Amino acid sequence: MANPITFLKPSQRDGIRLIFREAIDKDGFAIILNVLPSGEVEQILEEIRESAPRRTRAGVRHALGLGPISKVAQQPRIMDLAQAVLGAAAFPFRATLFDKSPRSNWLVVWHQDTALPLRERRETVGWGPWSVKDGVQYAHAPAAALSQVLALRIHLDDSTTLNGPLRVLPGTHTLGVLGDDGIHELSTTIIGVECLVPAGGVLAMRPLVIHSSSKSHSVAERRVLHIEYAASSLVAAPLDLAVT
Fold it and tell me: How far apart are CA 96 and CA 62, in angstroms?
């Protein structure tokens, strides 16, 4: 299990930001505890239920347009984490609610997150292949663009060894965009780390850190709000990120 960082009082903010940024630079991920109090987590879950979003098997995609999720994405403690790594101009551009449970269960093999949502399709060197998901243009991006992105996984339930936690290969975010063979080779030589995060905690990760998750073997739900932030909407001229 990774060593978590505890979200402390505002007076200790600068020290925590530095430790957090160094962990992201070195390992490509970090766990921060106690970001949201339990009462706030329960309120978020209730507001999401009331909004009755359209769900897929894995949860809710392109969820930033939902009021409760947009509000979480802009929450000052969440924004502070994004800005600590990406700078003051950091903004959320995509949100996904993952809901893993006995009713909806899946596994994800070792991979990198390389596809970004874009406002329009413009053929650009280093980008592609392209696809369309729910009406949104996507392209697989080069490492230079992905280095401007940070994902914050806000845990709405405890993530345990039994309910399909995320696993990461530390430090692999520095290796660029890899093919399937390269990812498989690294998964056999680097020891994976289980990211066990209690409710109210946040797992921050770079999209290029190699990660996976197993199926849940628990009756407990594992709901995670996965929000991605970028340093700028213009990831590579002439391509602008779509907000979705």
Answer: 6
| CA 146 to each of CA 65, 79, 81, 169, 232: distance values in angstroms, whole numbers, following the listed order | 23, 19, 17, 17, 11
For residue 231 the two structure tokens come to 């340093």
Q: How far is CA 226 from CA 67, 97, 129, 222, 238, in A?
A: 15, 6, 24, 12, 26
- Is pLDDT of 82 > 60? yes
Please report the pLDDT score of residue 12 as a whole number. 63
- Whole-model pTM above 0.85? yes
Give the integer Cα–Cα distance in Å for 180 and 65: 33
Q: Quickly name the fold that domain 5-240 has.
A: Jelly Rolls (2.60.120)
Integer Cα distance of 52 and 60 in angstroms? 10
pLDDT (tens digit per residue) in 58-78: 679 999 999 999 999 999 999
Q: Which two tokens stand for residue 244?
A: 């979705």
Contact in structure between 108 and 173 (CB atoms under 8 Å):
no
- Vertex 42, ends 39 and 46: CA angle to 5°? 140
| Token pair belonging to 111 | 């991979």
CA angle 206, 189, 194 (to 5 degrees): 50
Measured distance CA(80)–CA(7) in Å, rounded: 11
